[in-house]
Amino acid sequence: MSAIPDEVPKLCEACESRHKGMCGALQVEQLAILARIAHKREAKSGAELLAEAEQADVYANVLSGVVKLTKTLSDGRQQIVGLQFAPDFLGRPFRKESHLNAEAATDVVLCTFPTAALERMIQETPELERQLYRQVLNDLDEARDWMVTLGRKTASEKVASFLLLIARNIDPDSDAECASITFDLPLTRADIADFLGLTIETVSRQLTRLRTDKIISIKNNRCITVPNLERLATRAGN
Q: Where in the chain is the domain with CATH 1.10.10.10?
C-alpha cells in the first residue's frame, strides 16, 4: 500500500491555480495524483490549442498568458467570443468534442491532464465539481456583462472596457482603485475591433483619445500603462 503524500507536489507549489483555480478544491493526495499525469505545455502566440469539433483528449489550466476563444461560422468567418487568463480552466468536462476554437493570443504556458482522469476525479470530489461550477457561473456573469458592453456602450466605453478587462485579469492585485498597471495588448488592433464590434480605425482613434486624455500611455504601439484604474473604469462607464 503506497503512502499518502503530505506535501504539495513541486509542480504545484508555485502554481496560481493551486490557490485560486480548479486545483484549489483538491487535497494534497489528489494533487499528487494529478501531478503524476500532468504535463506543462508551452505554446507560442498564434498556435492553435484546440479546434472546434475536435476530439477533446486533454483539459488544461492556463498558467500564464492569454488564450483567445473563437466560434467559426459555416462560411469560415470567425468571431472572438472570449479570453482566458491564468488560472482559468480550459475545456468542457463530459463533452466529447470541443465547441470552440482555442488559440494562444500570447505566448502561453498550460498545465494539461487527460480528460478521463479529470472527469473521474470530478465524480469523486464534490468540491472540485463545485469549483468548476463556480467558474462556469462566473463566465456566464462575465458574458452577460459583455453583452451590455457590446449592445449599449459607446465606442469610447467599449475600448476602455476592453483595457479594463485585460488589466484586471493580467494583474490579480489591480482591484485597488488607484492602482497603476502596465501590460502588453494580447490582441492585435484587428482582433480588438472584432471582439468589440468596431472598425480598426475606430479602435485606433479611441486609443489615441484615451492617451490624449492621459487615461493611458502607449509605448511601441502595444505596451499600455494605466496610471489610475479608477479613471479607466469611469471612462468605461462602470
A: 153-235
Return the pLDDT at 1: 40
Instruction: Output the CA torsion 195→201→207→211 (10° steps).
Output: 180
Residue 153: CB partners within 8 Å, gap ≥ 6? 161, 236, 237
Amino acid at 4: I
CATH 1.10.10.10 fits 153-235, yes or no: yes
Lowest mean pLDDT, pick from 8-17, 119-128, 131-140: 8-17
Question: What digits encode the pLDDT tens for the residues 171-196?
Answer: 765 555 567 899 999 999 999 999 99
Task: Give which of 40, 33, 31 is closest to 13, Cα–Cα.
Answer: 31
Question: Residue 12 pLDDT > 90, yes or no?
Answer: no
From CA 216, how far away is CA 209, in angstroms rounded?
9
Find out whether the peptide bond into 87 is cis, omega within 30 degrees of 0.
yes
Q: Which fold has domain 10-145?
A: Jelly Rolls (2.60.120)
Contact 85, 96 (CB under 8 A): no
pLDDT of residue 175: 53
The answer to whether the beta carbons of residues 60 and 40 sit under 8 Å apart is: no
Q: How many CB atoms lie within 10 A of CB 238?
A: 13
* Pick from 153, 140, 166, 141: nearest CA to 226: 166
How far apart are alpha carbons 60 and 55 in whole angstroms? 14
**Coil, helix or strand for 62?**
strand
